[in-house]
Amino acid sequence: MKLNIALLAGDGIGPEVIDQAVKVSNAIAQKFEHQINWTPALTGAAAIDAVGEPYPDETHQICLDADAILFGAIGHPRFDNDPSATVRPEQGLLKMRQKLGLFANVRPTFTFPSLLDKSPLKQERIEGTDLVFLRELTGGIYFGERGRKDDGNTAFDTCTYTRSEITRIAKKGFELAMTRSKKLCCVDKANVLESSRLWRETVQAMEKDYPEVEVSYEFVDAVAMRLVQWPNSYDVLITENLFGDILTDEASVISGSMGLMPSASVGSENALYEPIHGSFPQATGLDIANPLATILSAAMMFEMSFNLQEEGALIRKVVDQALAEGFVTEDLADGGKAYKTSEVGDYLVAAILK
Ligand code: IPM
Ligand code: MG
Prior knowledge:
Number of domains: 2
Distance between the termini: 22 Å
CATH architecture of the largest domain: 3-Layer(aba) Sandwich
Mean pLDDT: 96
CATH class of the largest domain: Alpha Beta
Structural class: alpha/beta
Bound molecules: 3-isopropylmalic acid, magnesium ion
Number of strands: 12
Largest sheet: 10 strands, mixed
């Protein structure tokens, strides 16, 4: 099979972890006789420095032309500490999501048997956790009307949702639930917010089309609590953009390291795969960042964009093997030997080609 992939390394540790995902993907291609054509493109602070904006038109065109997009990380501290900066790397990510119509952000949280003791949560609480958030990604308060009034002394951001935006993400949620344990949780704040009431009304109306799916409705504050108390009671959760942003960071600690969880952002035409962690600027260039979240994102890419299940499964298998053997970067080394980012990549390549 021929795979055309846009490669957006981005900022900070992005290029280092992307390099490992490329090595691993190329090994998979060699083993299964695929041909991958990588097209690099600029994004984030790197793009601001080169051409003055974080998601240049040329990058957009490369993404449109590709079968899938593999993305590293975005963000640079020199913008974080400057609230007056008008051009920010993160704007590139938001623009990309919007222009490519990537409305469904798929963020799984699962545990690795060999890492159960790495989680800050009690082992017996997290054992068996395997849940997926479907976060709405192109609507809500991220993209609503915002501004200042009263001579700049009042600021506002608006959360707006249409029934069709809710329907399309909910549909993905029901469909995903059908392939898993048929449990769907709609996370909202319907006791306060009108947009949440529309979410609940819309999802309730869809229940009759999926009679086998058991749907629960929970308030976001309660989910924030239960997620760390009984994470393994959840399976598929759907929620709006900002709630999803917050809850998926919270959920990521369950697995034991931010550096482990992959994600996909899917639209009707395009799909982008990226680790859920940020650009980790302090580690840039040190070859110490954990590449596994990006490598597992590549596994999701093989599975979801190309329906290459065996290829994805092999990546997951060698990742499990590296973890079980302690062939890990310093975030997981726990006093034991810490391997370099590139060494973990080399280990996985060798394990795939063996
Ligand atoms: C994420 C990030 C982004 C978001 C930032 C970098 C704009 O936190 O992907 O979760 O808020 O969506
Ligand atoms: Mg976030």
